[in-house]
Every structure is written in C-alpha cells, then in structure tokens.
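User: quick one - fold this with LQKPKE2M bound?
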Amino acid sequence: MEGTIRTDSAPAPVGAYPHARRVGDLLFLSGVGPRTPGSNAIPGNVHDAGGKLLAYDIEAQCRQVFANVRAVLEASGARWEDLVDVTVFLTDMARDFAAYNRVYAEHFPDPATAPCRTTLGITALPTPIAIELKCIAQSKATRGA
Ligand SMILES: N/C(=C\C=C\C(=O)O)C(=O)O
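Assistant: Sure. Structure tokens for the protein plus LQKPKE2M:
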C-alpha cells in the first residue's frame, strides 16, 4: 500500500511534509534531525538567556537522530535492518565527523549489512541542529502502514 506516514513518536515536521512516504516496497523518510519528540528540545544544546546557542553535543545529537529515524521506521512497520541508503548532513564536518562516525558505527556495526551512506558538509539546517539524516528503507507494506 502506498501512502504517507506521520507519527507523534518522532519530532513534528517543521513544514508541509510527512515523516515518510511508501512507494511500492520502498519507504522514503523525510530529513530528520535530533529534536526530541514532543518537547522539540535538542539534547546537549546550551543557550544563553537570550536563546543564543552557546554549545552543542554532537554525540547526544547523533544518538537522538538515530532514535528518531528508528521511530519513523517503526511507525511505518519497518525495522532498522530495512535501511538501504542513508544521507547524512553535518553543519561542521571538521569538528563533528569523528564523533558522528563513531556513534554511526555503534548503530551499524557490520559494514556488510549496513546501508549505503553518504555524508555531506553543509552550511545550515532549518532548525538549530548539527546533523540531519535522509533515509530510504526497503520494507514490504504487509509489515505495516
Ligand atoms: N526535513 C526538514 C527539516 C527537519 C528538521 C528537523 O528535524 O529538526 C525540512 O525542512 O525539509
């Protein structure tokens, strides 16, 4: 079955898009960052009294963004192992690649079964986050939405 997926288990979209869309046996996820579902808080972010971002924790953001991807997959009836392609956007490649790469490997310990991956450095993301993931999974509609 084809259609869109939206779930309260992942951070609310910041625009006019669903969390995911199924087309045949493929599931396309919208870009998702490390906002906490419900509160929208970004784990590890430190702000001054005026709300200016003073510091962030890339490891905490990585762990939350992977949790958010998992939540969208599960809401779609898919599993972590169904991921086939992951595009990762980092706002500061020089500062964050090593920590991100380490946490990534914890989540995909075996390269033989891991999804394809592409990592890009970009100048900005729509929310005050340092990482965003764009994922495609293969998952039969019979397993879920
Ligand atoms: N996917 C988009 C933004 C996601 C932001 C976030 O999860 O914090 C978009 O604007 O296309």
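One thing worth noting: The mean pLDDT is 95.
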